[in-house]
Amino acid sequence: MELAKRLLLFNEPETLRMAKLGRELRAQGIDIVDLSLGEPDFDTPEHIKEAAKKAIDDNWSHYTPVAGYLDLREAVCAKLKRDNRLEYTPDQIIVSTGAKHSLANAVLAVINPGDEVIIPTPFWVTYEALVQLAEGVVRRIPGSIDHSYKITPQQLEEAITPKTRLFMFSSPCNPSGAVYSRDELQGLAEVFRKHPNVLVISDEIYEYINYNNCMESIAQFAWMKDRTIVINGLSKGFAMTGWRLGYLAAPKEIAKACEKLQGQFTSGTNAITQRAAITALTAPLDATKAMVAEFARRRTRVLELMAGIPGFRFVEPDGAFYAFPCVDAYFGKTDGETEINNADDLSMYLLTKAHVSTVTGSAFGDKQCLRLSFANSMENIEKGFARIREALAKLK
Ligand code: PMP
């Protein structure tokens, strides 16, 4: 069967591949500890579920406006004002089937073949694939552990060329957990000020899951707002990954372009999810705060456990629910059977020998690291790290 060449432009996400492998081993009856999860292990808060049940009973069952219900877009605007001090009008908001879909709309709306897109590493897998699908050219800026995986204004300046059209990043970052402070964002914004043709996608989906109570958006700077596309959604902060709701806030022209794309692909997202989303965005955030407090407790423990593993080098994640240790101390070692040459090998070794699933850093553009998720119970975290420690000790 000859399929479209476009399928060769990008790969299946490595994160999903590992999750699939883990599931296959589990189906064989093997007890796998899953530290590869990219979603909260909590249930959706009750008040949001109730809103969805009511929406079903109230017959919210018809096609929805392509951009999302107006009252939902108003709720998004109110949220952006409340949490981020950002002023938007509903015609600047497009609601989509997950933040992934919002990102796809945004990239496809602004990237022409040959346009350069700067992405700091490590980055969330899908960014690169979307740019490739749009036939743009990815220019990576290598993040370094010495700078807590945040790029400097100088690195940004050096990466910009006359062909640069877009800069794309997440803060809090999946996978590194890096969170840019206001000053750090201002440093980058000053560089963009000199390059008015460059747009920015600011992926803020982990905004609530941060451990320093610091959430800043690059869109807050007056000269950035008209060229920044803010991406957010309900998946992480409200434990609603399966509900599929993301949104973007953008200059009107870009929002219109995204609406046009979405109008031919998916139309408006699920009606019940949209009604529930209004409740999620407008109600007090108590359930979210309780979830984040539990992530914080696990994070503290994970940092202790990692400190006890020889050869792991890491920075404390300020946000999200991942640890991202650099594991290159194990490269070139073997347990007598399997030789470890890179993070892919180590991730596979941990899966097959320690029965712990992790994600190789190369999925995120960093070949030295592993992503270990703490979106799992404390019990499983203890068990997973004990197994990792034991398996690593066998590598000589
Ligand atoms: N951005 C980042 C950085 C993510 O980690 C994820 C989910 N793993 C998404 C966007 C997409 O979220 P969703 O499509 O579930 O809203």
TrEMBL record:
It holds the Pfam family Aminotran_1_2. InterPro entries: Aminotransferase_I/II_large, AspAT/PAT-like, NHTrfase_class1_PyrdxlP-BS, PyrdxlP-dep_Trfase, PyrdxlP-dep_Trfase_major, PyrdxlP-dep_Trfase_small. Its cofactor is pyridoxal 5'-phosphate. Its EC number is 2.6.1.-. Transmembrane segments: none annotated. One of its GO terms (biological process) is amino acid metabolic process. This is Aminotransferase. Belongs to the class-I pyridoxal-phosphate-dependent aminotransferase family. Keywords: Aminotransferase, Pyridoxal phosphate, Transferase. Gene3D superfamilies: Aspartate Aminotransferase, domain 1, Type I PLP-dependent aspartate aminotransferase-like (Major domain). It comes from the Bacteria. One of its GO terms (molecular function) is pyridoxal phosphate binding. Residues 31-388 form the Aminotransferase class I/classII large domain. It comes from Flaviaesturariibacter flavus.
